[in-house]
């Protein structure tokens, strides 16, 4: 069992209990997680090829034109797992620029669909490199809003080190679990603000034998998840 495989399962778990919603993904690990969830505990989950085709177990099951996605966003029947260049304690996300707005040091993607996603439906984040550069006290620009700005629901943040959530009284970020081989201290050191740390932090659930077989032989036989 590898760290990447643990992350795939952690991403899959983010969609548990959602019902028949559209799973939006950014990146291979979240995509594998959504497909794994659909094949195991969430058969009603809708998964796309990233364009206009709905897939089930790699086979076409429907057509979802781009205009229809906006209707699903507005109706709240979507749960997207986005990336983030910066995140703060309340889940405010930045994918637009780093540095002062007047003269940023790095120009990134722009806000894209982040405002509409975070105000209308459930949003989670995948961060492949957990570091103080990403987890910051204050984002340089708010692209996706957090819980202190009226977000619908920021559910999970999955990183290469841990799973985080916002199940606290003020809906600020909490350490939910640490991946096997990672310590709580390592997560704290890699985070640029004070996390809520429970008295006992469990390990992230490891893949079952069935899940490992699906990941390795069916979903990603070429091992792209490890690159």
Give a brief outline of the structure:
This protein is α/β, with parallel strands linked by helices and 227 residues long.
The separation of the N and C termini measures 15 Å
Uncertain regions spanning at least 5 consecutive residues: none
What sequence of helices (H) and strands (E) makes up the elements? HEHEEEHEEEEEHEEEEHH
Report helical residue fraction: 25-40%
Tally of DSSP helical segments: 6
Across the major sheet, the strand order is 4-3-2-1-5-10-11-12-13
CATH class: Alpha Beta
Share of residues in strands = 15-25%
Molecular structure report:
- This protein has 227 residues and is of the alpha/beta class.
- It has a single domain, classed as Glutaconate Coenzyme A-transferase.
- 26% of the residues lie in helices and 22% in strands.
- The protein contains six helices and 13 strands.
- The strands form three sheets. Strands 4-3-2-1-5-10-11-12-13 form a nine-stranded mixed β-sheet, sandwiched between helices. It has a two-stranded antiparallel sheet with strand order 6-7. Strands 8-9 form a two-stranded antiparallel ribbon.
- The longest helix has 12 residues, at 3-14.
- The protein is globular, with a radius of gyration of 17 Å.
- The two termini are 15 Å apart.
Provide the fold topology.
Blueprint: H1 3-14, E1 22-25, H2 28-39, E2 46-48, E3 53-56, E4 59-63, H3 66-75, E5 78-82, E6 86-87, E7 93-94, E8 97-98, E9 106-107, H4 114-120, E10 122-127, E11 153-159, E12 162-165, E13 174-178, H5 184-189, H6 209-219
Parallel strand pairs: 1-2, 1-5, 5-10, 10-11
Antiparallel strand pairs: 2-3, 3-4, 6-7, 8-9, 11-12, 12-13
Helix pairs in contact: 1-2
